[in-house]
Amino acid sequence: MPVDTARMTKVFSRPQSLTEAHFTYCPGCHHGLITRIIGQTIDELGIAERTIGIAPVGCAVFAYLWYRCDALQVAHGRASAVATGLKRARPDRIVFSYQGDGDFASIGTAESIHAANRGENITVIFVNNQIYGMTGGEMAPTTLVSQRTTTTPEGRDPATTGYPIRFSELLAQLDAPVYITRQALYDTRRIMDCTKAIKKAFQNQVDGKGYSLVEILSTCPTNWHMSPLQANEHVATTVTKVFPLGDLVNKGA
User: Fold this and answer.
1) Pick from 90, 97, 189, 210: most CB atoms within 10 A?
2) Residues 6+ apart with CB under 8 A from 80
3) Are 103 and 97 in contact (CB under 8 A)?
4) Per-residue confidence at 10, pLDDT binned at 50, 70, 90?
5) Sign of dihedral through CA atoms 120, 124, 130, 133?
6) In angstroms, what CA-CA distances link 159 with 42, 146, 150?
7) Are 228 and 139 in contact (CB under 8 A)?
8) Cα 153–chain centre separation
9) Distances, alpha carbon 203 to alpha carbons 95, 177, 178, 238, in Å
10) Contact predicate 15/40, CB 8 Å
11) How far apart are CA 249 and CA 179, in angstroms?
12) Phi/psi of residue 55, each to 5°?
């Protein structure tokens, strides 16, 4: 049956802050959705002309191609340090870093902790998919106990490799951060909650409140060897038991 296009209503458009460049993410992962939500947030706040994004080494390595704003590609783990320098040099700019769990919670551990401890007025998007996605599926600091990776083919053993790090809980013990939250994207409600959290984290910076971190539990169907549907269910039923959702710090809410 032919589609009556005259009666169709357009309900969604590409955010103006996103370019026409194609994402290089694997099909079914949540990175594309996160990238889109950030673009939508930049549009809604009207801050594109003064926003600077920082691309990591990781799955979002080409983020500087996808946003219609200034952006930098930085060395692995150094995004929080570079964001600090940018914000201090140009306090009128809105600076955000986009970092995976290997980048933010492993290679960049020191930079991440000290930027938070100083209360730098930046926005950090921390994507936690419990694995090194881009480099071949190795164990990350957030890999679950018994989870199989290319470097733990029989599953992560706490006796030799420790336990998954709850990095948001670690940073929540510091005095300076104004907003730390953990969100997910496995269903419509969680997408809406995550969208609100990202907007709040950017708004905090616009208002000069200080350090904001949004951790997002993401899927990695390719390296988890799951379908996108299975990966969503895994996050909802298993990952959230180790990394509970919700706000850990929300000052002045």
Assistant:
1) 97
2) 97, 99, 104, 108, 111, 112, 114, 115, 116, 120, 122, 124
3) no
4) confident
5) negative
6) 44, 11, 18
7) no
8) 26
9) 12, 14, 12, 31
10) yes
11) 5
12) -85, 140
CA 212, distance to chain mean position in Å, is 12
Query: Could you tell me the residue ranges of all domains in the chain?
Result: 14-132+166-250
* 1 has a pLDDT exceeding 70: no
> What pLDDT score does 9 carry?
79
Tokens of residue 119, six digits: 């209360």
Buried b (16+ CB within 10 A) or exposed e, 112-126: bbebbeeebbbbbbb
Q: What's the CA gap between 105 and 100, in Å, rounded?
A: 8
DSSP letter for each residue of 56-84: -SSTTTTGGGTBSSEEEE--TT-HHHHHH
Fold assignment, 14-132+166-250? Rossmann fold (3.40.50)
Rounded CA-CA distance 128/189 in Å is 19
Predicted confidence (pLDDT) per residue in 49-84, tens digit: 999 999 988 888 999 999 999 999 999 999 999 999
From the number of C-beta atoms within 10 Å of its C-beta (0-12, 13-18, 19+), residue 167 rates as: buried
Dihedral sign, CA of 61, 122, 206, 174? Answer: positive
Mean pLDDT of 100-114: 95
Structure tokens at 64: 């500087």
CA–CA distance, 54 with 6 (Å, rounded to integer): 42
